DNA sequence: CATGAATGAGGCTTCATTCAT
DNA sequence: GATGAATGAAGCCTCATTCAT
């Protein structure tokens, strides 16, 4: 039919993520993206009208995928540990979400719509975590005397903890240990 | 009142913080700053050659002040709770630090120097927290079987947990409760 | 129905006119035209290399048709009124001619040739009007003490007069009345 | 106080008009304007944020001035002739107004406001002409049996009539003659 | 022919920054 | 010091146009 494509969505997404993680969001322009992809800048405009549309499309894709994975952790013998492990693997999502405030949401209607969708997915994610914390067998072991939002927030905040020279699994173990038993030694242990 | 035609550092810092917290770092230009201060844009250049110098100067000032406060928490009957409380109060520091990756560190030598200093202060902060966690009376109650960096990271991560419709003190209580005892009910409690 | 994937000249002309009258000449691009026609932009290039060629071709077609109609008015019992009526009907020609100055005549040789042809047709039109004004029975009633070009210009200028809430025929009557007898009441009438 | 200005409003207006009359509105960019003024393109942005704002400001200025002049013609012994003469002198206004449909009114709020203002001035102009045609001594000589809007439209349309190798005053005479007495010789004259 | 893909040219804008007063 | 003026660099964006299939 026509000329072969040199860029496809996947390439775009990959280059977008690389560019942002390596250079920061402030370096994310179609100019830089085009250089990385080896195409003319205007070529990218045939795919996306605004950089904000590209980046939010990508973030939705990323977020959607990780929301799906949460379901898997629900069947883990230790679901909360599963979540932590999921976090460690999708750490870059967190970094990507961090740039949200820098995205010009007024750039276009599509961007606004995308941001709305991301917010939705984010809610969904929290809800799924909430379900794990309040229903099912695991929930019987989890304290219910602290507001759900704080419990969810706590789990999500752990993504911020630096890995600092240990393996992924070591990090998961350590974080899970504190999250489960607390920072303090147990009074019962001292008996 | 008529606009002040002279600026002082405090005004600069105040305007800088306000601008960034209200509009985001991407809106932080000398242009916007000048408008907010009611002076000509070029006037700011009499004080700062680069916006990066201004912002890092300000962040150092902010960071230095909060590092000082950590010492106070050490004398708290519950030092870790004190840290949490400090966090909730200095939440905007966290927001400010978040923009670090967006600062062009190559802007000038002074900027580089400032960033170095900030890193130092950050280390200092962690160290002070480390001291609280490993020495003194409180330390005897804190688990030492998890790497210090993870413990510190955990405490610092709590700043991310949303407050969501509770008072500051309620939030502090909830967060401290989980941090201290863990997310799970204690086996001993079920006995 | 599915979009036609083949274009013919008539469609091109229709879409061209619609696009220009609805959106203005500044919105006349092959991009917009292609969208309206439901074909790929590059397809249009199989017919026209330049948008200027298309538009001038179309204008020639339009102009030629209206020049033909002038002959009909010559046999009207009131030829000048016939011209006015012709005007009211072909008002969009006037709009189309208005965009002439915005056409880049240097776009191609064909464009230059087309513009030349349009000028010719325009001359022809004026000439035909001139003939009506200077020969034949009607001419005996028309004042010859004013330069022909001004007389012709006067008639052609009437196309600019707004219709403003009357019927076409009312407008024709009013305009013709003034054109024939003048704006002033006649001294003879007051006698 | 500060550096001497190299461009002022008048220069801007002059260059704007020249550029448009010589090259057409399609060539009216800040780039071209800057070249003509011998300044950097960005310099113009210190005066006007959008080319549409500049051009509409200029057109308002132009229109306002010519509206004022209408009052003068009212005291002319032959007010309608005065209007015609005014037209011939301000012919370029007409050309400028012709470009109105090409101005992107959505460019900014200021543009929208300006366009509103122009419309207002235009109405005012018509009204003033209407007053001349319907009140005062002159009005007694003017036919009132044709709608006012057509009479006004007629006068305004005369600006379109080409001058074609005569002096301004000759043109004014010819146009006024036809406008006053009509295109046809009077029946009384043939008696 | 029709088309999807790629591109270059050109215009738009925003700021940081310098400079003369 | 404070300021208004001017500017360059850099990013944004839209099309016309070419080309291979």
UniProtKB/TrEMBL annotation, chains A, B, C, D:
Answer whether the UniProt record assigns the keyword 4Fe-4S to this protein. Answer: no
Asked if the record carries the keyword Repressor, the reply is: no
User: Gene3D superfamilies from the xrefs?
Assistant: Tetracycline Repressor, domain 2
TM regions (residue ranges): none
InterPro entries xref list: Homeodomain-like_sf (IPR009057), HTH-type_TetR-like_transc_reg (IPR050109), HTH_TetR (IPR001647)
What range(s) does the HTH tetR-type domain occupy?
6-66
UniProt DNA-binding region:
29-48
Entry superkingdom = Bacteria
Q: Which GO terms describe its molecular function?
A: DNA-binding transcription factor activity; transcription cis-regulatory region binding
Q: What is this protein called?
A: Transcriptional regulator, TetR family
Question: Which organism does this sequence originate in?
Answer: Bacillus selenitireducens (strain ATCC 700615 / DSM 15326 / MLS10)
């Amino acid at each position: 039919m026509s000329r072969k494509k040199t860029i496809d969505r996947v390439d775009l997404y990959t280059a977008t993520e690389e560019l942002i993680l390596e250079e920061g969001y402030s370096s994310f322009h179609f100019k830089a993206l085009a250089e990385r992809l080896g195409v003319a800048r205007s070529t990218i405009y045939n795919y996306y009208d605004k950089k904000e549309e590209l980046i939010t499309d990508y973030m939705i894709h990323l977020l959607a995928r990780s929301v799906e994975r949460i379901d898997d952790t629900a069947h883990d013998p230790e679901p909360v540990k599963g979540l932590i492990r999921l976090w460690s693997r999708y750490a870059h999502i967190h970094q990507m979400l961090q740039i949200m405030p820098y995205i010009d949401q007024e750039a276009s209607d599509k961007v606004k719509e995308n941001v709305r969708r991301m917010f939705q997915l984010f809610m969904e994610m929290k809800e799924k975590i909430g379900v794990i914390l309040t229903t099912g067998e695991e929930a019987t072991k989890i304290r219910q005397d602290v507001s759900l939002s704080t419990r969810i927030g706590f789990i999500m905040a752990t993504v911020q903890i630096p890995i600092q020279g240990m393996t992924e699994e070591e990090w998961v173990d350590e974080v899970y240990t504190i999250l489960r038993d607390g920072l303090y030694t147990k009074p019962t242990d001292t008996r």
